[in-house]
């Protein structure tokens, strides 16, 4: 079956990340935020602003090449977050849970949050905002740009 796409605009990402911050402020205080790069960087910046948090650490895990999943590679481990106790780990989404499983291994006591979640990865995340189905590919604003689309009448006529 062809995957569905769920397009997220900058506005929507900002709103959903702020909704995440509302949930997380109740669960703090936090020593700092660990952003899972690269996708977690922008949600982490928005949440950090709302939580008034200035201590930002990063961990880099490379799991996908475009839509193809490979073996997760830790390109940069976290250096300042110890075992994660009191720290908040943020990513844009959890899909299969492969990435979060690796980061949970590095920061077992941290709280894990994502803006979006798919069912297979759901058990690996402590707090999230929006769930989408497993066959949905989320299109983030940094991976897309608006483009011309032919009128329906013209594209239907060419079929
Ligand atoms: O739950 P999973 O199946 O592991 O998928 C989720 C991860 O995949 C994407 O990262 P990606 O590997 O594409 O790297 P990027 O954030 O640098 O784009 C996304 O940002 C999550 O980190
Ligand atoms: O941009 C993305 N959208 C997704 O749905 C996804 N799942 C894993 N990695 C992903 N990256
Ligand atoms: Mg990522």
Automatic annotation (TrEMBL):
InterPro entries: PRTase-like, PRTase_dom, Xanthine_Guanine_PRibTrfase
Highest taxon, organism lineage: Bacteria
Amino-acid positions noted as binding xanthine in the UniProt annotation, renumbered to this chain: 95, 138
Residues involved in Mg(2+) binding: 92
Pathway assigned in UniProt: Purine metabolism; XMP biosynthesis via salvage pathway; XMP from xanthine: step 1/1; Purine metabolism; GMP biosynthesis via salvage pathway; GMP from guanine: step 1/1
GO MF annotations in UniProt: guanine phosphoribosyltransferase activity; hypoxanthine phosphoribosyltransferase activity; magnesium ion binding; xanthine phosphoribosyltransferase activity
Required co-factors: Mg(2+)
Binding positions (guanine): 95, 138
Swiss-Prot/TrEMBL catalytic activity: XMP + diphosphate = xanthine + 5-phospho-alpha-D-ribose 1-diphosphate; IMP + diphosphate = hypoxanthine + 5-phospho-alpha-D-ribose 1-diphosphate; GMP + diphosphate = guanine + 5-phospho-alpha-D-ribose 1-diphosphate
Cellular component per GO, a single term: plasma membrane
Membrane topology: Peripheral membrane protein
Record's subcellular location: Cell membrane
Record-annotated Phosphoribosyltransferase domain positions: 9-148
Residue numbers binding GMP: 95-99, 137-138
HAMAP family per the UniProt record, alphabetical: XGPRT
Assembly: Homotetramer.
Name recorded for this polypeptide: Xanthine-guanine phosphoribosyltransferase
Originating species: Teichococcus rhizosphaerae
